[in-house]
Amino acid sequence: MDPTIATIWVVRVLFLALLYVFLFGVARVLLRDLRSAAREPVTALGRLRVVASEVDEPSSGTVFPLDAVATLGRDVNNTIVVDDPFASTEHAVLSFRGRAWYLEDLGSTNGTFLNGSPVDGLAAVAFGDELQVGRVRFRLERVGG
Predict the structure, then answer these.
(1) How does strand 63-66 pair with strand 92-97?
(2) Is the peptide bond before 118 cis (omega within 30 degrees of 0)?
(3) Between the chain's N and C termini, which has fewer beta carbons within 10 Å?
(4) What is the pLDDT of residues 1-12, one digit of tens each?
(5) Which residues pair with 67 in a beta bridge?
(6) Does the reported pTM lie above 0.85?
(7) What does the pLDDT look like over 71-83, one tens digit per residue?
């Protein structure tokens, strides 16, 4: 066997061995990251506290942890169910976009209110602001605050 061909074969085998070692290292790092992410508790981005309620559900003082998108309304498929005849089936949506919260009325009959003013379209919401759906008032709060 020619020494040049033998050298090429040795280089090929070494290259494949290094490639497999590299791929094994990448897979190990990815698995470690996935396992650590699975162990970390999921934190809510904020919460809604019921400030005042003239209906049975939700009652005053109830706290709802919020994900990036939370729907409010009378339908049981909403994130926060407001059992009030003045609330529409799909009344409003509260969403976290970028670094801020936004409230949007979904064409409800009786409207959605932010700090006592009707919401027309999309409205920015800050922590401490109060929103009203039907006869239920909520306050947006920081988690742990």
Answers:
(1) unpaired
(2) no
(3) N
(4) 788 999 999 999
(5) none
(6) no
(7) 998 889 988 888 8
Average pLDDT on 28-37 reads 88
What DSSP string describes the chain? --HHHHHHHHHHHHHHHHHHHHHHHHHHHHHHHHHHHHHSPPPPSEEEEEEEESSSSSPTT-EEEE-SEEEEESSTTSSEE---TTS-TT-EEEEEETTEEEEEE-S-SS-EEETTEE--SEEEE-TT-EEEETTEEEEEE-TT-
Question: Which residue type does 134 have?
Answer: G
Which percentage of the chain shows pLDDT scores above 90? 25
Q: Name the burial class of residue 83, with classes exposed (0-12), middle (13-18) and buried (19+) by CB atoms within 10 angstroms of its CB.
A: middle
